[in-house]
Amino acid sequence: MSTRIHTDCLVIGTGVAGLSFALKAAVAGRQVLVITKKRREQSNTWWAQGGIAGVFGNNDSIEKHVQDTLTAGDGLCKEEVVRMVVSQGPERIRELMDLGTQFDRDAQGNLMLGREGGHSEHRILHNRDATGAEIARALLQAASQQPNIRITEDYFAIDLLTQHHLGRYVNRGHTDITCYGVYALDVNSQEVVTILSRVTVLASGGAGNVYAATTNPPVATGDGIAMALRAKARIANMEFYQFHPTALYDPGTRPAFLITEALRGKGAYLRSPHSKKRFMDKYDARLELAPRDIVARAIDSEMKQSGLPYVWLDATHLTPAELQAEFPTILETCRSKGIDLTQDYIPVRPAAHYLCGGIDVDTHGHSSIHQLFAIGECSHTGLHGANRLASNSLLEALVYAHTAWEACRQNIHTLPLQEDIPDWQARGTSRPEEWVLISHNIDEVQNIMSNYVGIVRTQLRLERAARRIELIYQETEAFYQRTSVSPELCELRNLIAIAYIIIKSAMLRHESRGLHYTLDYPEKMARSYDTVL
After folding, report:
1. Residues 465, 470, 475, 476, CA torsion sign
2. Is 308 inside any structural domain?
3. Pairing of strands 517-518, 456-457
4. Of 305, 326, 351, which closes a domain?
């Protein structure tokens, strides 16, 4: 019999969402197991540069933040969700500070609030240009001191456990599907363990590696969403993938280094690669601080007109002292590439950055599967609509970690562990010798998505992408059936699933809205709607 682990709360992911939930559950006396497929520091949270949005300024208000979010979301936000997140935000951020998170302050001790694209006021709390790393540090330190939390590294969640594993038929339309935990690969021992839990929380982050150019770390392969899809959970609005407008153009480097929006908030300009003239006035009155979908499409248009794979970002008019104080990571990284921000323009291009769709959840993070919650980037809450407002993602993760635990708190003591789940069956498989097949297929998926399902789309490109992804899917599933499970193979399967649902969702949206822009349907429909699979 293989290893079986029992816990009250299973959390998959060590970013801000997962750790925030884990801490709340542990403080309430529940046993929490947090698993991560790599090291605990390797999360999207750690890579977040810009900051977290919250109403703390004297001239700011909850209503202004709400309206900015609704405007960026292009008619597809759920207003009740926006109001909940924005209203609860300051309290959740104060909880972060109570845990030891340090945000930048002025000489008088007041919070230094930045401004980013789409925001009408200065409301971005930050720790220089490494805010995510500071938040992750504080949360990991707090978790390490909590005896009810166990963090297990190198555990790759393979599949969610439902009635399907008890031999019962499960269909996406069923309303009684229940999650009992996961099968997870212990990468070090190569054993697939069975983890049984009263509640399972997917906090597994995004899926940027479905594209060739991304700012996401290598771990962002959409694992949670793909597992939820296979378990027949409801998935929504996957066509809305946000491309950050300004990633450093550095061919061959992966992930792409993010040039935070806060630099444009400080006053950096975008310039044409040939004429060196500013161009955002042709696209939006808000210039460089327009919402990300508008800026990314503008840059994409300028690159196509020039025939060059980048535009320029100009920060040379900012003082060396400002750059060193607020953007030391960017300053040093560019310097290592031979770029001096005080004298040189920075070559930038859009890169896949954030997924606005995901596992469809209610205001407590509860998915369409009983006892399964999804929080953070892997979820679709309705906060972001068709385009996320900058720095709202960490805020969403904090608020939904809180509301999810509040929902669990009410009845977790009544939920049994499903002991009759069978062990993982691996008989008849063998170790593959040609891992090059996996890496080749990952490259192919990324190139298909970048070429056909990027910033600008057409139905013809989507249909072509769908046919090619279907072939790779069939090839990979046959390989999976005869091969021992491995992290690389699981990530490939998950990326294929993510590619499929992005393409499928994009084909269902016959309009251009927010992050989804198609030449076949360039106008917005009068009525907004979600695409749900």
Report:
1. positive
2. yes
3. parallel
4. 351
Instruction: Dig out the tokens for 10 from the structure.
Output: 């299973």
Q: Say whether both 301 and 180 belong to one domain.
A: no
Q: Give a yes or no: residue 527 inside a domain.
A: no
> In terms of domains, do 321 and 389 share one?
no
| Residues marked as catalytic | 292
Cis peptide before 255 (omega within 30 of 0): yes
The three-state (H, E, C) secondary structure of 392-404, written as one string: CHHHHHHHHHHHH
Do 174 and 311 have their domain in common?
no
Instruction: Indicate whether 528 belongs to any domain.
Output: no
- For residues 365 and 226, state if they share a domain: yes
Instruction: Give 14-57 pLDDT, tens digit per residue.
Output: 999 999 999 999 999 999 999 999 988 877 787 777 799 999 99
- CATH no. for residue 87? 3.50.50.60
Q: Are residues 172 and 232 in the same domain?
A: yes
pLDDT reading at 63 higher than 90? yes
Task: Give the range of the structural domain holding residue 316, as residue numbers without chain letter.
Answer: 246-351
Among 5-14, 43-52, 88-97, the minimum mean pLDDT is found in 43-52
The tens digit of pLDDT for each residue in 270-294 reads: 999 999 999 999 999 999 988 888 8
In Å, how far from its chain's centre is CA 42? 13
In a domain, 224, yes or no: yes
On whether the CB atoms of residues 89 and 51 are closer than 8 A, the answer is no
pLDDT tens digits, residue range 438-462? 889 999 999 999 999 999 999 999 9
Q: Which of 190, 200, 196 minimizes the C-alpha distance to 155?
A: 190
Provide the pairing of β-strand 346-355 with 241-248: antiparallel
- Read off the pLDDT of each residue in 470-492 and give the average, rounded to a whole number: 92
| CA–CA distances in Å: residue 317 to residues 257, 263, 266, 268 | 22, 12, 11, 8
* Closest CA relative to residue 16, chosen from 141, 139, 109, 162: 139
